[in-house]
Structure formats: C-alpha cells, structure tokens
Amino acid sequence: MIAPASHWTDWAKWLALLTMTLDHLARFILAPSGHDAALWLMETLGRLAFPLFAGMIAWHALFDTTRPLRYMARLLCLALLAQVPFMLLIDTGGIVRLNVCTTLTLGLMVGWAGKQLVTPDLNLRARTLAATLGLIGLTLGYALDAHIEYGLDGVLLIPALMGAYSFLAQARRLEGLLMGLAAVWLTMRLNEAPLSTASAMLATLALLIVAARAGHGVPVLARWARLPPWLWRSFYPAHLWVLFGLVLLLEALT
Fold first, then answer.
1. 55-58 contact pairs (CB < 8 A, 24+)
2. How many angstroms separate the CA atoms of 160 and 137, rounded?
C-alpha cells in the first residue's frame, strides 16, 4: 500500500471555494438581475463545488484526521454559523432548508462509522459509538432529505468516496471500481440538468483518479499560496454574510 499524499487538497481547496463563490454570485446576484451568464455558471463551474468538498472531507476523514469527533463538531459549528445568512439569502418557499455544512456533517458521521466498523480488533465501546453515530447520520439524512442541500444522496456521497479511496489505496481495484461507480451514480442523482450532471461527474471522476494514485502525481502548491486554516474554516459563513450585504445594497440602489 502506497502512503497517501494529501497535498492535492491544497489545490482542491482553492478550486472548491472559487467554484462555490461563483455559483453563489450567479444564484444570488446575477440571476435576480437577469444576467445571461448566471445559468451557465450555476450549471458548469458551480456544480464542481459540492463533490470537491465531499471528496476532501472523505479523504481527510480516512487518511489525515486523528480527531474525527472534533472534525464533525467543527463542521456542525460552521453549519450553525452559516444558517442565518443562508436562510436570509434563499427563497425556501415555506420549507425549512439547512445549509450544505449540515449535509457534509451527516455524511462524515456515516463515513467515519463505516471506517470504524470495518476496523479489526475495535473494542466494543468504540464500535458502539461508531454504529450509533452512523445510524444517527443515516436516519437524519433520510428524515431531512427534502430539507438539506443535496439531500440523502449528498450525505451518502462521502461514505461512498471513503470506500473508493480506501480500496484504491490498497490496490484493490475491483472493489475500488465498484465503490467509485457508486460515488459517480450518487453524483449523477445530485443534479437534473445534463450539463450540471456532467460537470459534477467530472469533479467526482477527477477525485477518483487522484485516489487511484494515492494522491501522488499532483504538484505541491507553494506554502505561501496555500489557504490559511482560519480562512478555509471561516469562508463559508463569512461569504454568505457578504453576499447578503451585497443583495441589500443592490436592492437599496434599485
């Protein structure tokens, strides 16, 4: 087994934030003003973001983090911090909607549980905790399917990618292919428009190609160009507040 290399995520972080920001600019700023580029941005570059975020969380949960519960708690905190600007920005149609960090938190719970439960010689207490968290994540994902971004399919994408990464890292190509196909199938279900589906699948396929090489073969990003941890962790709620401010400003000017 080749030791996995995680430096590819430095590039993926920039790409995920860029595509997410473009998607939200198109959705909340350009589309309401009738800009022609809005739909194209949302159906192409905007569809890359979620698979990239899910793919990075799956990778870190599998290979990097030594404190998975802290990782889940941090994601949950981001979900709570982002919920107010998220609700102010979107038109829910009277339905309670929860932001994407909620989806990612539930996916991490299910994925980490799966990782723990297939670990040999795991003690009963750890196995019980993993099974409980996994069951909670699955149950909430199913119950909140219509209320969370990307629904249950978005929740399941993280454990599917974790399974594919694990098998590919062990050179178990057949199992890796099957789990990879499951991840691609879930990605297809996240979108309805053909162009959106193709864009999202491109991101998932790129993740699987990187995983097939255990993260190697990607140039190392210079240290000065890497996202500072504070910016990476705070960007999602912060950019939603900025977008909400822009919406208010544009409304005041028109």
1. 55/12, 55/161, 55/203, 55/204, 55/207, 56/9, 56/12, 56/13, 56/16, 57/104, 57/107, 57/108, 57/111, 57/158, 58/107, 58/111, 58/158, 58/159, 58/161, 58/162, 58/165
2. 14
In whole angstroms, give the CA distance from residue 169 to residue 167. Answer: 5
Which residue is it, tokens 């905007």?
A: 46
User: What six digits make up the tokens of 128?
Assistant: 């019980």
Alpha-carbon distances, residue 7 vs 48, 64, 138, 235, 248 (angstroms): 19, 11, 30, 20, 39
| One-letter amino acid for residue 49 of the chain | A
DSSP single-letter state for residue 254: -
**Cα 2 from Cα 9, distance rounded (Å):** 17
Name the DSSP class of 98: B
* Tens-place pLDDT, residues 93-122: 778 899 999 999 999 999 999 999 998 888
Give the span between the Cα atoms of 232 and 104, in whole angstroms.
Answer: 15
The partner residues of 148 in beta bridges, in order of sequence, read 98
**pTM of the complete model:** 0.95
Confidence check: pLDDT of 10 > 70: yes
Residue 23: burial class (beta carbons within 10 Å; 0-12, 13-18, 19+): buried
Report how far apart, in Å, the C-alpha atoms of 210 and of each of 31, 112, 239 are: 34, 21, 29
